[in-house]
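Course assignment 3, question 2. Fill in each field.
Student: A.L.
Task: Predict the tertiary structure for the chain below.
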Amino acid sequence: MHSVSMLPEDRYRGAVVEDLQLPPAFSLPADESISRALELAYERDFSHIPVLDKHRRPLGYIDTAALIAKWQAGYASPNDSVTQYMCKFIRNESHPYTVITPDTPLAELAEFLHHNIFALVTDLNRKFVLAVATSQDLENFVSRRGT
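Answer field:
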């Protein structure tokens, strides 16, 4: 009898992030107002939106549900900057930056997503955020392939 659990490599059959066919990333500039950020998040139905500095370097992300809760509770003003409410990315020796590119194997992405809500897909030099990948994207991929 075969084991039900599959190794990640078998589940994704050697596929890479590019095979997910993710839409281009949507991100916010650090100086964007939260009212505009919420409007854009609502239009696109995004739960998490990356925040980038003026050089397009990722600073953190907006958790849309948490921001809406703060807004409704009166803790956030419409013209406040998204940087006041973003979750900052932690980069240090104990939390090194993991580079996820279009060529990253899906098995590696799956492992990363075991510990993170989403992954920013960047170019190899991390100069451009190309897409945002989630566990749901992986599940959709597996469903489409029938694996």
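Instructor remarks: The helical segments are 8-12, 34-44, 64-72, 106-113, 135-145. Residues 10 and 107 are 9 Å apart (CA to CA).
Grade: pending
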